[in-house]
Design a protein that fits this description.
There is one protein chain. The chain is α/β, with parallel strands linked by helices. It has a single domain (2-214), classed as Alpha/Beta hydrolase fold, catalytic domain (Rossmann fold). Helix content is 39%, strand content 15%. It has helices at 28-31, 51-65, 75-84, 118-134, 136-143, 150-154, 172-178, 197-200, 202-214, and strands at 2-4, 11-15, 36-39, 69-73, 94-98, 160-164, 186-190. Strands 1-3-2-4-5-6-7 form a seven-stranded mixed β-sheet, with helices on both faces. Helix 2 (51-65) crosses helix 3 (75-84). It is globular.
Length: 215
């Protein structure tokens, strides 16, 4: 877990995607100096073995950190939707979904880095390889199919979608539609980025996140 305590007001909890670490959020503190940024890593292997287990883990993190908003990347956003969509839910913080999908990803989403960034691609590849070995059980949860009624409940959750804008051929609204976003959700796109906008274009991504939080 990475924590930046330089914020004086809002607190944000950042969840990584599948086979990712808190390092994907490393620019948060510098780009959002007024926010206390808490970037999570997935728990030790064996702690999470089901969707409900992942949601329970996230619930514990919310209780411990009491954030004003949650930003979940990819599968991390899906876990947040599973928690926030529970029938017994009460009140949860604002939810920001970062390139997170509510349906089988459309082919337009099937890339990790949009521009020619060999160093970033190499970094991500190394992270995936290491985390895939460490979190094999988590991978089985993510690839084993959605829980019963997951999508129906997820559609009731009020969330903001920030998506990689890819080459600009699709509007933010259309990208959200392709990602299966709820019709009432707000959608933003970060130009010339793909699945990791927070690393591909940190300034553009965090400016977009702050804009979304002010709405």
């Amino acid at each position: 877990m990475s924590v930046s305590n330089n914020g004086s007001g809002m607190k944000g909890l950042f969840i990584p995607g599948l086979f990712c670490t808190s390092a994907i959020w490393r620019h948060a503190a510098a780009r959002m100096p007024d926010v206390e940024s808490i970037a999570l890593d997935w728990p030790a292997p064996g702690v999470v073995g089901s969707w409900d287990g992942a949601a329970d883990w996230l619930q514990d993190q919310l209780a411990e950190h009491q954030p004003d908003f949650v930003a979940g990347h990819s599968f991390g956003g899906s876990v947040a939707l599973h928690l926030f969509g529970r029938p017994e839910r009460t009140t949860y913080p604002r939810l920001i979904l970062v390139d997170s999908f509510m349906v089988e990803p459309h082919p337009v989403f099937r890339n990790h880095v949009w521009q020619n960034r060999p160093e970033l691609k190499a970094e991500l590849k190394a992270m995936f390889q290491q985390e895939k070995i460490k979190h094999e059980a988590l991978g089985k949860v993510a690839t084993g199919g959605d829980p019963p009624q997951w999508r129906q409940r997820a559609l009731t959750v009020q969330a903001v979608h920030i998506l990689g804008g890819r080459g600009g051929e699709h509007s933010a609204a259309h990208l959200g539609q392709l990602a299966g976003a709820a019709p009432h959700s707000e959608r933003f796109a970060v130009a010339l980025t793909s699945h990791f906008p927070m690393l591909e274009a940190p300034e553009g991504f965090y400016n977009t996140l702050q804009k979304a939080l002010k709405r």
